[in-house]
Design a protein that fits this description.
Strand order of the largest sheet: 2-3-1-4
Largest sheet: 4 strands, antiparallel
Oligomer: single chain
Number of domains: 1
CATH topology: Alpha-Beta Plaits
CATH superfamily: Nucleoside diphosphate kinase-like domain
Order of helices and strands: EHHEHHEHHEH
Structural class: alpha+beta
Radius of gyration: 14 Å
CATH class: Alpha Beta
Length: 135
Amino acid sequence: MEKTLFFIKPDAVKRNLVGKIITRVEDSGFRLGNLTLVKLKKEGAEEFYQIHKGKEFFDKLIESVSSGPVVAMVLEKDNAVKDLRELVGATDPQKAKKGSIRSDFGLDVTRNSCHASDSPKNAPDEILFFFPEKD
């Protein structure tokens, strides 16, 4: 059973989409391993997204993800990373597959409603960022 990190971004939390998004995730066969509601400070958001530092969208991403609470969760399933990325869709909601979370709920590239680990290599570190004591 593979684990991955998923979080619902502030834009979706503000629009009361948490329940709808979690329902989609669970209906897709993911098991919820852990969940937390947390408000990222700017410094924490910068640390989490350090891989994107220096890219043109970095400042806008940090501002957006630190603008309100996120609902972070550990999800479990065989092929969790790959399957979640498919369920979430492309970063740009306009380019995301019809019926994906970002296509249905995302507003734009920055406010695309959620984050999903991009690889089995990065997932454990992302999980530890939000769940340092246990996952």
